[in-house]
Each structure stands twice: as structure tokens, then as C-alpha cells.
Specification:
Oligomer: single chain
Number of strands: 16
Number of domains: 2
Strand content: 15-25%
Order of helices and strands: HEEEEEEHEEHEHHHEHEHEHEHHHHEEEH
Number of helices: 14
Distance between the termini: 50 Å
Structural class: alpha/beta
Radius of gyration: 24 Å
CATH topology of the largest domain: TIM Barrel
CATH architecture of the largest domain: Alpha-Beta Barrel
Length: 430
């Protein structure tokens, strides 16, 4: 037992020693994340923090035993932040045993994604190597999916990988949502069946919303009880009513967004975020009135309706920005885990639709940090913030020139290798 304790102390000291190494990045083009760019920058990292950053001419490098990294002419960015993802909760869609993103039942407010996060996921490492070091890992399933947490995309276990525990509760609002399409069928029997199906869906949605009201009212009453039997589902709701946790409302249509927001505010909940919001561009006044930020669904998608411009999803970010709405980008949808490495290229698309490159960068760095509540720690390259950053030889927003060469998470250099690079190098040699 004594020897185990000594080994533990030695291991702890080793970890502390690794974190106290001073790293200096010299000569890079620092993209701060707030719109500012510093040419020929110097960044000094110590004990997991950025202790100095500025133009190289203004910083005194009187530091001994520092590890100096010459990145002259290369680009330094704050960590990209991926919101609303099942990364680390599921591995192979076709293998049920590898999927842990959903729970059975409609109201799973007690479900927490944090403890289900798999740091051994091979998919996580492929996303990390494109500059995404932090992700909001989000449970799906039911109407109330559960609570998300912001996780580091590198760690030994879920405790080690936790960046922000239980940031908010997710409600998947039951809305009528389908993409319009032309139909030329004259089969009235088929049409009647389709009408019956839609009528059944409407009744089901109405019933679900009534049950959701009943659940929220029960949660409010539960909080007032002095002597009560612990109910984990109702217990988990209390931090939402108090405003300690955010309430993420997943809705896309105009009616869905309005109904979800009015539902939440009717229970005195003000700490609200819309997730999805593909039709939010139609109701910017409503969103501004309620001062609600948006995690905007993947813009590389088709418009919702057949009479909309084919590039409407590409134009939506500029409409929201011009209206003064705070929003960020996510990659939710088909193949979202493996494809989420392409998050920076979504931001790159907005450059062709009215954004500057630095404004586009904010959509995947500072803005998600603001929305998730971690802006005091990360999201920009500033003195005193966590040293979550990476170096690319090209433009991170450009699929052709982007090439990540160094990753730093809390000041520690993170390996770029993953199973795909291993296979690439293996067969390159052959």
C-alpha cells in the first residue's frame, strides 16, 4: 500500500512537471478570435495558460528553459468549439452496442452525457486533428434528451476530459417539420392515407406538448415540497428553473421556435438557447425581443421549402448577424460525428456570403464560447485564458490550404496522430 502511494505521488509530480513547461510560439500570425490579427506574434504558454501575447517586438523573452517553437509565417488559432454533437457517445451507427447517445422514454432530464463520454473513441481523434479541441457532447432521444457537458477531445477518462460539467438541458420540441416537395400523384387513396398519417402526427404532437406541460408543472411543485421522496428526473429540473443551467430548445420552424420559446418563458425560464433554427432568419425580431442566442444547424444543407432560394442556408448567417443576433455554427445531421471535422469549412462558406474571414472565425471560436458559457476561459487568444490553440500552415477556413501542424490543449501539446494517419503512412510506405 505504501509503495502504491509513493508511485501515485511520483506520477502526480510527473503530470505537474509536464504542465509547468514553458512553451513559446514565435513569429506566427495570431488570429485572436475576436476579429483582431497580430502579425509576427509571440505567445508564451505556462501552466496551461497564455501568460503573454503580442507583437514580437513588444515582448521580452527573458525566460530560461523554455521550449521555443518557430512558427514564422504560419497561422495560430484558438481552439475551434463544436456544439451540439454526439461525438464520444456513439461510434458505429450500425452497431447498437457502440451507441450511447439515446435513452428510452420521453422525459430523460436526469440523463447526463458527461459520464457516457468515451475518450477511447477513434472518431474523436480524427476530429481533434482539424483544430477542434472542445465539444458540447449532447444526448439525444425523447422530448427531454438530458444534460450536455463541454468535453475536451483528449483525455484519459471522462473525468479528465471534462471542461464544463452539465452546461444545460436539451428539449427536442415536437414540431411539424418536413422539407416541401412537388408531388404529381393522382392516387387519391394514397393521398387519403397520407392525410390520415399527418392527422395522427398532429394529435401525437399535441398530446406530447400537453405531457411536457404536466412534467414541468410537476417539477415546479416538486421544488416546493418540504419532505419529498427523491425523484431524479424532477430533481434535475431545479437548476433549469433557477437559471444555473441553460435550456437548449431544439427547433427549426417558425412555429416551432415561437412555441418552444413561449413555453419556456411561461415557466419563468430566461436562460434559453435555440438549437437548429433553420427558419430563424424569418423571425429575427422575435428572437431579438427575447434576447436568445442560436446554435445554427449545419448550413451545408438544402432549404426547408421548395420556394426558397437554393442557397438560403448559406445566406442565413449574414441575415442573423445583420440583425444583431449572437449565433454560432454546428454540424448536426447525417454523418455528424465523422463529418464534424469539416466545421471550419462551414465558417469558410460564410466568407462568400458577406463575412470577413475574422468574422467567420468567431462563429466557431468566440461565439460558441459565449453561448456555452466558457468565454472567460477560452474562445480567444488572450492573456490569462486557457492555452487551447493550434497552428496551421494554411488558412483553417480553406479546405485546400488548411494543414494543422501543432495542437495545444490547456498548454499541453496534443498528438496529431490518429488511426487514419497511421493507415495513410502505412500504405504510403508500401
Amino acid at each position: 500500500m505504501k509503495y502504491n502511494f509513493i508511485l501515485f505521488l511520483l506520477f502526480t509530480q510527473l503530470l505537474i512537471g509536464q504542465n509547468t513547461v514553458t512553451n513559446i510560439l514565435l513569429g506566427g500570425v495570431a488570429h485572436i478570435g475576436n476579429g483582431e490579427v497580430i502579425q509576427n506574434s509571440t505567445i508564451i504558454i505556462e501552466e496551461g495558460k497564455i501568460i503573454q501575447i503580442g507583437h514580437s517586438d513588444t515582448i521580452n523573452l527573458n525566460i530560461s528553459d523554455a521550449k521555443i517553437l518557430n512558427v514564422k509565417g504560419k497561422h495560430i488559432y484558438p481552439s475551434l468549439i463544436l456544439p451540439n454533437t454526439t461525438l464520444g457517445l456513439a461510434e458505429i451507427d450500425a452497431v447498437r452496442a457502440s451507441r450511447d447517445e439515446k435513452e428510452v422514454g420521453l422525459f430523460n432530464s436526469n440523463v447526463r452525457s458527461q459520464i457516457a463520454y468515451n475518450t477511447e473513441s477513434t472518431v474523436v481523434s480524427t476530429v481533434r486533428t482539424n483544430g477542434i479541441l472542445l465539444a458540447q457532447v449532447t444526448p439525444r432521444g425523447g422530448v427531454i434528451g438530458g444534460t450536455s457537458s463541454v468535453m475536451k477531445l483528449h483525455g484519459n477518462n471522462w473525468q479528465d476530459a471534462t471542461y464544463l460539467q452539465d452546461d444545460g438541458l436539451h428539449i427536442y420540441w415536437p414540431e411539424e417539420f418536413h422539407r416541401g416537395h412537388w408531388t404529381h400523384s393522382h392516387d387519391f387513396t394514397a393521398k387519403d392515407k397520407e392525410d390520415d398519417k399527418e392527422d395522427h402526427k398532429k394529435k401525437k404532437r399535441k398530446k406530447t406538448i400537453i405531457e411536457l406541460h404536466e412534467f414541468f408543472e410537476s417539477a415546479q411543485q416538486y421544488n416546493l415540497l418540504a419532505n419529498k421522496e427523491i425523484d431524479l428526473r424532477l430533481e434535475a429540473m431545479q437548476s433549469v428553473f433557477l437559471g444555473d443551467k441553460k435550456l437548449y430548445l431544439h427547433a427549426n420552424t417558425v412555429n416551432g421556435i415561437k412555441d418552444a420559446v413561449l413555453f419556456a418563458t411561461s415557466y419563468g425560464i430566461r436562460n434559453i438557447v435555440i438549437v437548429g433554427g433553420s427558419e430563424s432568419w424569418r423571425i429575427t425580431d422575435f428572437i431579438l425581443k427575447h434576447n436568445i442566442p442560436i446554435i445554427l444547424g449545419r448550413i451545408h444543407s438544402l432549404p426547408n421549402h421548395q420556394d426558397e432560394d437554393i442557397d438560403q442556408p448559406f445566406k442565413t448567417p449574414k441575415i442573423l448577424a445583420d440583425a444583431g443576433i449572437v449565433f454560432c455554427l454546428d454540424y448536426h445531421g447525417d454523418m455528424e460525428r465523422m463529418g464534424s471535422r469539416n466545421l471550419p469549412f462551414l465558417a469558410g462558406t460564410t466568407v462568400n456570403y458577406g463575412f470577413s474571414k475574422e468574422e467567420a472565425l468567431k462563429l466557431i471560436t468566440l461565439n460558441p464560447a459565449l453561448i456555452l458559457g466558457i468565454e472567460e476561459r477560452t474562445g480567444t487568444l488572450e492573456q490569462g485564458k486557457d492555452a487551447n490553440l493550434f497552428v496551421s500552415s494554411g488558412d483553417i477556413l480553406d479546405v485546400v490550404s488548411n494543414n494543422v501542424e501543432h495542437l495545444f490543449l490547456l498548454g499541453r501539446q496534443v498528438p496529431l496522430e490518429n488511426h487514419q494517419t497511421k493507415l495513410y503512412n502505412k500504405y504510403l510506405d508500401k
